[in-house]
Amino acid sequence: MAVVTKTTEKLGITLTEALHSFGRFCFPKFAKKYPNLVTPYKNPKEFLKSVHSMVHIEVKKLYRDAEPPDFFYKEPADNRLIIEYSSKRKLCHFMEGLIDGVADYFKSPIKYKQTSCTLNGNKTCEFDLTFS
Length: 132
Ligand code: HEM
Fold this sequence. Notes:
single chain; alpha+beta; H-NOX domain; 4 helices; 4 strands; globular; binds protoporphyrin IX containing FE
């Protein structure tokens, strides 16, 4: 947050824009640093389904004080994935940027809309994703 806040001041952009861009910027760095967590997956949906039960579990083993968010998944269709995101940090705009970073990485577009948001008083943030 220190890096992102400084950036908003320097560039005159909103916190939402900065968090989104920072997420998109971060994903390729994560994928480069931890290739074994990403390369087993051939498409973005299978990878995203592994983030809660695999990626962030490994992160917790490496960094004991890390507090990755909670995800709950629903699969209403083969080409869709609903991710319910909860975190006391309320970083859903960072999450959106990460999703864009995943689409870039797999060279496979992901359309998504956020159907609920804790910043608007909802209990969780819900992302409804459609894969091509
Ligand atoms: C190889 C891939 C990934 C790695 C290594 C990784 C690692 C991490 C790490 C180290 C943190 C910081 C935790 C802390 O300091 O408490 C974090 C936070 C976070 N990660 Fe991941 N992550 C990956 C992929 C993803 C993806 C694809 C998403 C979203 C779809 C995601 C969503 C988030 C969010 C939203 C946070 C912010 C923490 C919060 O909301 O409270 N991550 N991740």
